[in-house]
Amino acid sequence: MDIKADNKLPASIKPNSPERFVNRELSWLAFNERVLREAENKNHPLFEQLRFLSISANNLNEFYMVRVAGLRGQVSAGVDLPSQEGLTPHQQLDLVNARGGELMRSQQKCWGRLTKTLASEGIHVVEAGDLLFGEKRWLKQYFLDKLFPVLSPIAIDPAHPFPFLPNLGFSMVLELKKRRQKETLNALVPLPHLIDRFIKLPGDGYRFISLENVVALHINRLFPGFKVMEVGLCRVLRDSDIEIEEEAEDLVRLYESALKERRRGSVIRLTINHDMSPDLRSFLVHGVNAAPETVFALKGLLGLADTSELVLKHRPDLLFQPFAPQFPERVLDFGGDCFEAIKRKDFMVHHPYESFDVVVQFLFQAANDPDVIAIKQTLYRTSDNSPIIAALILAAEAGKSVTALVEVKARFDEERNIRWARDLERAGVQVVYGFIHLKTHAKISYVVRREDDKYQTYCHWGTGNYHPITARIYTDVSLFTCDAALCRDAARLFNFTTGTAGPDAMEKLAISPVSLRERLIHHIDLEIEHARKGGPGSIWVKMNSLVDGEIIDALYKASKAGVKIHLVIRGICCLRPGIPGLSENITVQSIVGRYLEHARVICFGNGAKLPSKQASVFISSADWMPRNLNRRVETLVPVEDLDVHWQIQEIMAINLKDKKQSWMLQADGEYRRVSRHPNSFCAHTFFMEHPDMLAPAADAVEVDDFDETPDLP
User: Global pTM?
Assistant: First the structure.
């Protein structure tokens, strides 16, 4: 199935026309539709299909809480300034609500199909009418023991006003009638989110019933003396200033003063069951103060993100086959000594195909080594019970000088990050919180070691977070080096983030917001010059999102000059490829599959056709978005070791060769799946089978000959 990001495209687009850009919000929705398509991909095991559905639903929740909240804030504040593609906030909101409604209905259809397939595998999600006598008796006791003590039925009358329903709150809405009286009464039963949404029924099989069905079966016990006339369901999504801060900061900046004045936590989306009566719907909408356009009536299961609870460990046959990452041979060759391996030569680790344990081992080795005198570390996100935090605490307790740059504004991780910071400070770590107006997103570990009569510095540069859990499912690249210039640049960057002065001039590194954008445009301009002189101009880029208008225009300029540009953009892409006279030399590919594509890699041909020994190769922490280039501390790290240089180009070439999990962006914003054939080439499978790419393949991939024609089933 094709996926459209918008519905209009003129016959030609002028270079300065707003129509040269795809709308960011619609592009994100198109990405989440691609995620949902993986829930419909029968090449995946059944539980993995279910997991993709849950991810799609959860993604959409966050999108409404963050991006749609920002758009509604602009509309409420009277902001009418158009975005780069020429749409006002009100126009964007209308398009997003229409497209979001379609996506929610598609998710419900997918759930309906998956429940039938689950039943064929002996996993049943039953309704109240499907219960056996023994199951009903068991549920009665379950309700009394587990649910009745924690439920709080709330009658709404003049003495009991409508309560506040929290963000992501899931509630039952009722119309009640007192026996022998004519008057009706409305009531609510909030369903606690810490209780399992799906309750396994007793017996040898796998039969589940939803929490709301169990409560509905016993609702009379919550309202004795009343007759229940109607039971409805609702789920509320709200905005908040904390949630808006990261993903919607571009929206917030346009109405900052108005934002401070509006009531926090306004309803952004209210989903209800499709057959709720008009009277009960009116009561609910008025009670939560929801605007009509925020209400979505859905047929099916509200809160599809909860369906991940049905992924059972007891049925491994319905999951992806387990994959054990390989520990890097480069380190094993030196008996596990990270410092010795790095000192011999730079090396790269490709996660999750190679284990993140090497990063943890690097830090624990530093913590335990009596010759290590200092460690500096950026922390944007990591896990609970993080081994990274444990290593830093161990190092501080051993008397080493340890500095941790903790970003407390990492969206949805604020509380966890503050908790880490307190633990680190108690152990003697010098904790720095970075800048007020710049979010620190760079990924660096920096270790200083006493060797003979000198100090030797070792660095780890990453494209992903120091998070051992997500490192199992996110594709990222790590570079370990003791290159003197890069290590001095790392020291300058830490001094910039922990001190008050501006950064010293870097020797090799480019950082935002100081020089990263300029470095990128400089290299794009060099490729333009090569093409204009008749030589090959070539650019390969891999990242999560491409939004920045200035960078997109630079790529358009390069395309018009004849530079061949291949972009692997997982999520948002505001560039339109394949437009004659503007972008006919640009392809945009999105890979959505078993692993979340997260690495940021940039290759410039530097006068040669990629892949090439003379290419300029970089890894980065930054996507090409205004927030990353203007309002964050990010890194662009040159890769100069020839083996690593080739490995990264080979990773790019293999990604560009992928057909099985790839979608190609068309000029009109439509995404077209490259292949539906189960035996098509899959980059994820290739890397799982070849995790340790120590040298370039003999037959380097000719990507310019890449076949974009979709295979037929």
Answer: 0.91
